[in-house]
Amino acid sequence: MKTSHTKILLLLITILLMALLGKVSAQNKTPQKQQRGAPSTSSVLPQDTSANTIKENLAVERPQGVLLDKVVAVVGKQIIMYSDIEVQYQQYRQMGSYQGSEETVKCSILEGMILSKLLMTKADNDSLYVPDNQIDMELDYRLKYFISQIGSQEKLEEYFGKSISEIRSEMREGIVEQKRTEMARNEVVKNTIVTPSEVRKMFKALPIDSVPMVNSEVVIQQLIKQPEVGIEQTIEIKERLRGYRQRILNGEKFSTLAILYSEDPGSAAKGGELGFYGKGELYPEFEKTAFKLSPGEISDVVETKAGFHIIQMIDRRGEFINVRHILLRPKVSFELLQQTSDELDSLATEIRSGKITFDEAVTRYSDDNKTTGGFLINPANSSTKWELSQLDPTILYSVDKMQPGDISQPLLYDTEDGYQAYRILFLKSKSTPHRANIEEDYDRIQEWAIEQKKHKKLEEWMHKQYERTYIRIADPFDQCAFEFSAE
Q: Structure pTM?
């Protein structure tokens, strides 16, 4: 049976979306919010998961034909509920990430869930487990994301009708399932390699109108010089923060002073409030001090890579804290900035004249990026290649006018930590838009070939599992034209 590439991707996206929603989403299957203490979905499902008992539950409906919820699929000893599919479908609609009729999309969602159940069975059989520290890191990240989206921990608890510890426990179960599913899939497709002849064969088999266009890409190096802040500026900043601290102790509101004076653009407008964060998510020096504070207590001055802070504890919930802070950064004098610009300008002239190469200059003089040779690394693909649309506008403005081998004028910019620095850019290479070809895009085409081969492995494995595993599909999904059914 031949399966389309798009179909496979939709199934894989379904699995990832299932994991993203996790157990918390499963609690919100209707617009009504659960009350605190209400039973979770898992606690009201049949505890006897033998085949006969599960079959009897395939048609649990509300009287008068109004659907309450029901088991729509059995995969071995695992079940899939109608409400699980509905949650996924509504999420797809909100994301606008599907094509086709409601029936077709829901069938694809169900098939993705069946694949997930088959992979979980493999994880059980192969004893694939995830270290607790990995689960905790992922759990902290997702909780922080949900809290940031909904506004506060209290709102999250109110929405799901559960305490943060209950939400955390149920989310943990979902994350464990996701990670183990990913591990099982990786086991299925591991050691997938393609030979150069396979790469060329795959590429030649593509119809000419199916060969994708490759946008213009650039490779850029940078050399950075960051002026050092003087001792006088540092002392002045600390004294200002101690002054603010004293004013707060004398009765002024921390939030008011944060709005007026904090240099953190993300929190100043909110009175310096950061929202809830877990351990390992803040600067170490900031976190070490913040977690020791009592509600309402104000710290002394704390120094981090971002600058200098005073911190006030608002609330602590288990391993999460919500604090306010006021951030100030020492300012570099205009004279020192100008001196740094002049130094880089002279260095660029030496590079252009051939007295020193850009690589040598980075090694000797750059204040950053020495470990990458000054290359800008694209976080989207961990390579040195950037499409022009991916570049920061300030970099694009300069690079767009340059030819390979050109060096920019010194450019003033703000570092990730908010300090001012200068840099010069070197345009290493620049490609023109073109249809993918073996000569210029072999690495990219090789990645496509590997993914295609992995999909083929997954197809073959799924067909075998369909033959070996008891699978029953209930109405209305028994009419779905599944791609991965047994042949």
A: 0.62
